[in-house]
Specification:
Chain lengths: 86, 1015
Amino acid sequence: MSFLLTCPNCGRREVEEFSFRGQYRPRPAHVESFEVRANYVFFETDHEGKRLERWYHSSGCRRWFLVERDNNADPRSFWFSDLDRP
Amino acid sequence: MNVRNDDSPHLPARRGAVSGRGERAGELDLTGSRLTEHPSVQVPRDGLSVTLFWNGKPIVARPSDTVASALYAAGVRIFSRSVKYHRPRGLFDNQGLGSETLVTIDHEPNVRADRRRVEEGMWIEAQNAWPSVDFDLMAVNDALLPLLPNGFHYKMFHKPRWARRFFDRLIRRAAGLGTIDTAGHRTETRYEKRYRFPDICIVGAGPAGLAAARAALAHNRRVLLIDDDLQLGGHCAYSPVIVNDCDDRDLCGLSEQMAALRLIDSILGHANLEVLLQTTAVGLYEDNLVVAERGTELFKVRADSVIVATGASDRHLVFADNDRPGVMMARGVERLIGLHGVKPGRRAVVVTCHDRGYETAQMLRGAGTRVAAVVDARVKLPSIQIVSDLHNARVPIYGGETVHSANAHRTLRSVTTGDLAGLQANRTISCDLLVLAVGFKPTLGLLSMAKGPPRWHDERQIFTVDELPRGVYAAGDVNGYGSFARLYREGWEVGIAASRGQASPVSVREGSEMIMVLPADIESRGEKHFICKCMDITRAEAHRSIAEGFDQVETLKRYSNMEMGPCRGKTCYEAVARLAARDTDQGTGRPAAEPGMSSAAHSSPGRPADRTLAEVAAALFQPPCAPISLGVLAGRSRHLAPIRRTAMHDLHVQAGATFFGMGEWQCPHSYGDPQKEVQMVREGLAIIDVSTMGKWEIGGPDALALIESALPGRFGDLAVGVMRHSTICGKDGRLCGDGMISHLTAGRYYISTTTGNHSAMDSLVEWWITDRGLDVHYRNLSSVLASVHVTGQRALEFLQELVDIDLSNQAFSHLSCGQAMIANVPIRLFRTGFTGELGYDIHFPAEYGESLWHYFLERGEPHDLKPFGMEALRILMLEKGHLIPGIDTDGPAAPCAAGVGFPVGDDRAHLVGKAFLGQFEARGLDNNTVPYKLAPGAPIPPDGVVILDSGAIVGRVTCSRMSPTLGHGIGLARVAARLSAPGCHFSIRLPDGRDVEAEVLAGAAYDPDGVRLRA
Ligand SMILES: [Zn+2]
């Protein structure tokens, strides 16, 4: 994996400048059961196909952004996505 | 096509050069193998002025030699022993493709001798042979050859179990390449990563690569030209063939060698050109990333366009004992003559199937080697000038024949030739050199990585990779063998296309450029017919593997290890595909007839493309396409992990400080004696640079909301001018840091945290802001502000002289914060006490770092103010029982394990980790971090040792020091909760086996009530 990734803030940069920080799902509300909230923290579905991911431009502008990525397709299939707030 | 010398054209080919001896061609140049001139190519004329040592024996060489050419000229024929059967192996391709020339040079294993320039005093050792390459006891494996079949390590020695262990050890010793230098002779070696961002990266500096560079430079592009050889020019650097009909008229009529030199002259020194020689491109990745290796450096080249002009190498030919020293590839022989002025042998046989092979024969004759025969697989010989020249010179030419076997006693003695089917041997010709000139196979590694497995190109009878991704171009021999004029034009056109971002022009090959006859492999029996020399795989073994069901090239390659050796398939990929096509009936996947039976059909001259071969894809090339040392891959990449120094770093260096790394930061460890530095603080006054702490400022309408969602405490009641300590938890409720939260001015908060993980903290805070869409002004001031801590009972008295605000206990009590000026520099002032004494944190713009540090020391001189380091600070904090999250706690530590237990109200909806904090309390603690003390005089355990209770391990020491203030050892330990109550005892196991008794303390060992902080 060594492609160029487009930071919404900086433009095309080496992918190694970025950190992948896991899948993104909206935070469960605090009224949800402990089990629901524990699952949110500790489990990822890691499913095939399209999914929302959290990426962070760690060696660059330090901006967080969400991408929608299809892990069946070309590793460069990134689509930027608005944050889906709970 | 005539072969001629530039200086004296029309030289009779026969005249040749007398095998000249160099000026110092002393006793070791036994073969008389040095040339100083050649009728058709220029050879180097430097004297034998370098001495190197081959297995301890001195050898003289020319400065222009490679290690391989120097050894060869000195008569060395056996360079190494093969990996499995320990068969003698000698110079073969002479351009660093295969495993034959791997040697150890000055303790560096697996150096390709044909890619390393000689240096005075080099100590060269043969590998994989015992006791020596010339007499290798392990060669007994050769006699066992049929007993060590392919995949034998999967199949044999499974039972009984002891046998597997025994044979494993035996096989380990017998197999393998060089030995790793565990004695550490090369510990000074440093590996670096380098980065380049050219417009166009050209891999390969042959005629096509050079022409492409010329075109791109003419279009004002920045060009990076990479070649793995020692000189530019590719195969033209030593080729005597005359250039005809070239688009650059100035090059016509020259030899390819001279034309290449002129081409190089026309671009070298151009401001937009960078040339990397002896640099091997080992991978091509997405978005045009070329990864190349040069010695201890790894280059990462990101280019708009990549032009792959990696050329081609000689085809491999399969026949009995085809691995014997003395069997060489045509270009290897030409390199010996043209690049190094070495006569390759006394009597040579050239086996060929196309016109270019005759040029090699003529070149050999020019070097004084007698050509005993040319064996051409074509029945009808071409009617070209060079063939009649050879005829006239009474060189026997046998059409419709090929080599059946090489006959050798260690090195080559003769070859047997015969019909193409391998059924009838016609004659045995004595010779010490057999030259394989049976066509060329493109070097497809990089292209295959860009696109996929190579496909058979019917018309050109080679494997190619087409439909390249955008921005990747191929030019030159890699698209099929071509004349100089053809390669020049193709390179130029591709260079223009790449410069303009256009599609690649269509590649054209015509007439004699097409080598339509495939090598006539001979396979009868096949037991010593080597296909993959690197991994020692014979034709018969490969055939058996196919019969076992591994009939797809990819699985065959993995099962048999073919193409997995040091040549990475460059030597054998085409031969492997040839035999896979032959052995498999594509319809059923069942093995075809016995090997040998079908070879005639496959090698018939002029036979149309082999349908089966067209259906077999060659195996996909995987990176790296050349061997690469692990050091190069592991080398530092500093740009992603910068070393950070505080603004006062240079002053600490001048003061004689020692440093240590804390995350990315370099911190002063001490200025000499940490114990004395502790006493300085306790006795009255000292200063420390704490610029490495994390510093954030948070303002805006949602500032309080952000802080309260991030930190477990409540801060709504935090008055302006006051600060409070807090832990920081992750979303799983675990402790990940701690810090001070200050309410600087109304609605504006300032957080400072421990050094170490503030990059991680920063990313967390940024995420919380992003995720929750909070309206805050957030600034990371960690590097913007420098900070010092002035501490000791005289700190107030000293600082009051410097600042413009009232620091008295009433006006600025413990845990106060505010803004002030010192020497006209705006500062933020915080009264803290983590050393256990009265202390002030002073934060100020980093650009004043040095001047304020000077100012403090100068004004502090009458007060006896001296700096102290992080080691003294650690001891001071230990004496107070302060722990550092992450060091004195571990991953699964709950905040209450750090003594920070508190209830979290239900109204804290957004608190990070809230779901878990309650759970931790309910569950109770397994382990706890507690301060302890040792008896006076007891030895100080090192950090990290285990804690025992009744013989069982119950914890570990996280930090242990001698307290100069208290006069006995103190520390922090993470122990089982049942042992964490004040007054509990446990024993600490020292590395020497002794135990030390420790007693758990209720709190700080020093000033437990914090009287001194508030005084
Ligand atoms: Zn960015």
